[in-house]
Each structure stands twice: as structure tokens, then as C-alpha cells.
TrEMBL record:
Pfam families from the UniProt entry: HxlR (PF01638)
Stretch forming the signal peptide: none
Keywords: DNA-binding, Transcription, Transcription regulation
Protein name: Transcriptional regulator
Region (Disordered) location: 104-124
PROSITE patterns referenced in this protein's UniProt entry, alphabetically: HTH_HXLR (PS51118)
Biased composition (Polar residues): 104-117
Domain of life: Bacteria
SUPFAM superfamilies: Winged helix' DNA-binding domain (SSF46785)
Length: 124
């Protein structure tokens, strides 16, 4: 029996699925961030979980990790071009969520106040 072709949605979910990755992406869409900045922005995530999620995202090629040779070490995270290509996916998820909130009579959550494109994504 021939092996089935992978499902495109499954591939996407392997890369951005889970509780934290979309929230990390939301923060990285505002620009390059240090670990501590991401940790402060993604409420409720532990340092261990953040490190794990960033490693997975780096392995999938959507996050770039830049280590500066200084003491103490400085590490910055940013989106790769592949990571930036997820913007329309996140915006579609955002629009769908807004439609569901409206359909159920709930109000939309607060959005970020920054002027970046990530400001349009739902807040936490």
C-alpha cells in the first residue's frame, strides 16, 4: 500500500499548533525580541516552555535565533521569511475568531496598542 500524501493542514498545525506558538508569533510580528521580552509579552508561559517552543519554531525554520558573542550572552529572536509568510494565516484565524465572537454574542478581546501589523491580532 502506498503511503498517503501528508495533509497540508496537518503540516501547518505541526509548525504553529499548540497553546503558545501563535502568541509567540504575534509578539515576533512586532519585531526582533530578546527572550525576556517575549516571556513578558506571552502571559502565563514558563521560561522552560518558551525555550522549548522557540527551539521547535527555529527547527521548523520560522524563527531565527541570533547569539551575540558578549558576556552575558545576548540572544535575539526574529521571524524568518518563512515565518513572516504566516501573517495571512494568522489574520485568517483572527477574522474567523471575530466572526465566532460576534455569532455567540461575546465582545472581542482587547487588541495591542502598538502601530505594527500585529496590533490587529487578538490580544491575550
Amino acid at each position: 500500500m502506498a503511503e498517503e500524501e501528508p495533509c497540508a493542514v496537518d503540516v501547518t498545525l505541526r509548525v504553529i499548533g499548540g497553546r503558545w506558538k501563535v502568541l509567540i508569533l504575534q509578539d515576533l510580528f512586532t519585531g526582533t525580541r530578546r527572550f525576556s521580552e517575549i516571556h513578558r509579552a506571552v502571559h502565563g508561559i514558563t521560561q522552560k516552555m518558551l525555550a522549548q517552543q522557540l527551539r521547535e519554531m527555529e527547527r521548523h525554520g520560522i524563527v531565527n535565533r541570533l547569539v551575540y558573542a558578549e558576556v552575558p550572552p545576548k540572544v535575539e529572536y526574529s521571524l524568518t521569511p518563512l515565518g513572516k509568510s504566516l501573517w495571512p494565516v494568522l489574520m485568517s484565524m483572527h477574522r474567523w475568531g471575530l466572526e465566532q465572537l460576534a455569532a455567540t454574542g461575546n465582545s472581542a478581546p482587547a487588541t495591542r496598542e502598538s502601530g505594527s501589523q500585529a496590533a490587529e491580532l487578538p490580544g491575550r
